[in-house]
Amino acid sequence: MVDVGEEEVLLRVHRSGSGWKLGRLVPYRVPWREGMTVLDGLVHVQENQEPGLAFRRNCGAGRCGSCGAEVDGRPVLTCSTRLPRGGDVTVEPMRTFPVIRDLVVDLSGQWVTAGRVPLFEAVDDGDDFWRIPREDVSDVAEFRRCIECFLCQDVCHVLREHGQDFVGPRFVTLLASLDMHPRDAGDRSGFSAESGLELCNVTRCCQETCPEEIRITDEAIIPEKERLISRKDPVARLLKRVLGR
Ligand code: SF4
Ligand code: SF4
């Protein structure tokens, strides 16, 4: 039990590496100030108490997606999460990914998956000047708000349980952003078929976690599931051709 004063906050931070084979929570008392975020608290610890504390950060304004962690078990951006006055807060790394040290996780597998998604291929209709109605790009524009924080990947229980069998919500969103682009002619059916999309049971945890409020499940996962089923099912494919949708 560590006492914490009114004008302080207690950060219990996951530490690992430096010869500690298993991670452990180390308590740090930090002076509290109005508007302080979890990231501010971590920076204070690093600058004043523990220079070796490892965590990622960049913009500090919720735009770069680099400071994701689990605060009291919830995946969040630490720069956008306030510290309560006199509070007692636990900060741990995103547990879906292997931990390199302290709060830093290994995201290299995510970039490998990103590289497997077939790129955008422009429709070849001789028209160099693209006129696209606003309503045709509204979903795609929403998907492009993604800051690649990977909090949706962290919260997804399928990824936690099945690991490599499912590419995860971030990459289904990327897939949808390309498939739904009105000027795209690319064929991503192979990637989709091998994505493990059928494992997702539409719990919407990813959607509720996304700091950019992207409707991951409703606007990306469900349409991509429908696309996958209609590709596999000849009757559905025929109906789609007859009904034109
Ligand atoms: S909706 Fe699907 S992808 Fe999103 S968290 Fe749930 S199982 Fe994972
Ligand atoms: S979809 Fe949302 S939660 Fe997932 S990586 Fe992008 S911004 Fe982060």
Helix and strand topology:
Elements: E1 8-17, E2 20-31, H1 38-48, E3 68-71, E4 74-77, E5 88-92, E6 99-101, E7 104-105, H2 108-116, H3 134-143, H4 151-155, H5 157-162, H6 169-179, H7 189-193, H8 205-209, H9 216-232, H10 234-243
The structure holds iron/sulfur cluster (2 copies).
The site of one iron/sulfur cluster has 13 residues, from helix 8 and helix 9.
Explain what the structure shows:
This protein has 245 residues and is α+β, with helices and mostly antiparallel strands. The chain is 36% helix and 16% strand. The strands form two sheets. A five-stranded mixed sheet has the order 2-1-5-3-4. It has a two-stranded antiparallel sheet with strand order 6-7. A hairpin with a 2-residue loop joins strand 1 and strand 2 (20-31). Helix 3 packs antiparallel against helix 6, helix 6 (169-179) packs across helix 9 and helix 9 crosses helix 10. It is elongated, with a radius of gyration of 21 Å. The chain starts with 7 loop residues before the first strand and ends with a helix. The mean pLDDT is 92. It binds iron/sulfur cluster (SF4) (2 copies). One iron/sulfur cluster binds at residues 155-156, 158, 169, 200-206, 217, 221.
Features:
16% strand; 245 residues; 10 helices; 36% helix; binds iron/sulfur cluster; Fumarate Reductase Iron-sulfur Protein, Chain B, domain 2; two-stranded antiparallel sheet; 2 domains; 7 strands; alpha+beta; Ubiquitin-like (UB roll); five-stranded mixed sheet
